[in-house]
Write a structure and sequence with these properties.
Blueprint lengths: L3 H25 L2 H6 L1 E8 L5 E3 H11 L6 E13 L2 E16 L2 E18 L2 E18 L26 H8 L1
Parallel strand pairs: 1-6
Antiparallel strand pairs: 1-2, 3-4, 4-5, 5-6
Amino acid sequence: MTGPAIQALLDKQAITDVINLYLRGADRADIDLIAAAYHPDAIEDHGGVFKGPASDYVALMARMLPKAGIMNHLATNIVIELDGDTANAEHYILAFARMQKSGETFETLTLARAIDRFERRDGNWKIARRQLAWEWNHEMPHSESWGRGLMFPPGTELVRGAKKPDDLLYAARGAN
């Protein structure tokens, strides 16, 4: 049996796992991971981009993410306030993306904050409501030289990240 302090740590870790798996889903276009983060009746307010049922947002991501360029989302400064079977959570999302518009490839760095209301239902923590606040964005021309050649010599064949099912993560799971 666990005491209240241990249970609080377990609950906070479960919520942190939901946050991180959601972001993995965005990076790898793993729509099942994104959908699993939400309760069926959850609301997504993506800070002016989308507002409505999370299921509709997930459907939108299912159309967009597989075609999207390289993306990496990092969750930082995760703060979780527990209150029984509910929790308020805030975290920053730092997103790096390579995009194309009008034939031009560029890179973008964005910081947003997610304000989530989590609920534990049937023993599982999931998002009941998410609100996003956009903090800042910086764009730059595409330039990939791997430290101007200092990190890897020209001609090195690097293992690169990819979308589901082509990413190394999914290949490694299949080998187990």
